[in-house]
Task: inverse folding
């Protein structure tokens, strides 16, 4: 058996994507978690699954610079093969992004490049779009601008509220994020420069699961 890819997850809140990754372990292993919020629901998820979670909070550092250094040091201490952001509500320092270049991914609740940043569901509803969804992408130093790996579309309905739409998107998030990480672990998805590469197997699975790939 090949050694499973070791994945560090970073979150700030509820942790439902973190939980979906924990449940999907096999080809990859969640080696630990970093959280910047002592109130985050994801901490209990980590404890229940006996996954080491390190709290790394801005208030515990004298300066922003120290915090950034601390965060990098904390992430490095897990020696991860991949870092998966799952609702980590901070823009990462370019130094952090470069350090984990090609090994840092994020899940975002919109069909990027539409609606980067916050309040994606509210904005989609306000604009009356017909399709919304989520995106898994590699992280670069911009906000939600890195190479797109895969997307799951969700149809918007006339009576949708932010809650109803976000619940349907979240369900797809919980399917697409583990799938992408399994593919990375199996060498079925990779990155060459800014181009995401897919094996034939990844392409056919994506088709079956209803995920859109970037190329
Ligand atoms: C998800 O919608 C994710 O796409 C975004 O932040 C939210 C985190 O939710 N980046 P959860 O903490 O995983 O439940």
Result:
């Amino acid at each position: 058996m090949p050694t499973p890819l070791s994945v560090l997850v970073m979150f700030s809140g509820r942790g439902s994507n973190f939980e979906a990754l924990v449940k999907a372990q096999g080809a990859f292993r969640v080696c630990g978690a970093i959280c910047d919020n002592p109130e985050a629901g994801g901490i209990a998820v980590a404890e229940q699954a006996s996954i080491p979670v390190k709290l790394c909070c801005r208030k515990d550092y004298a300066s922003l610079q120290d915090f950034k250094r601390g965060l990098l040091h904390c992430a490095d201490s897990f020696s991860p093969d991949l870092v998966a952001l799952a609702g980590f509500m901070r823009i990462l320092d370019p130094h952090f992004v470069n350090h984990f270049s090609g090994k840092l991914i994020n899940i975002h609740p919109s069909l990027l490049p539409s609606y980067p940043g916050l309040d994606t569901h509210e904005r989609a509803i306000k604009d009356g779009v017909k399709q919304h969804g989520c995106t898994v992408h590699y992280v670069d130093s911009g906000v939600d601008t890195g190479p797109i790996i895969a997307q799951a579309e969700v149809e918007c309905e006339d009576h949708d509220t932010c809650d109803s739409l976000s619940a349907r998107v979240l369900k797809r998030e919980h399917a697409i994020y583990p799938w992408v990480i399994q593919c990375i672990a199996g060498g079925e998805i990779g990155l060459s420069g800014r181009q995401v590469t897919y094996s034939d197997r990844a392409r056919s699975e994506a088709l079956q699961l209803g995920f859109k790939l970037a190329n």
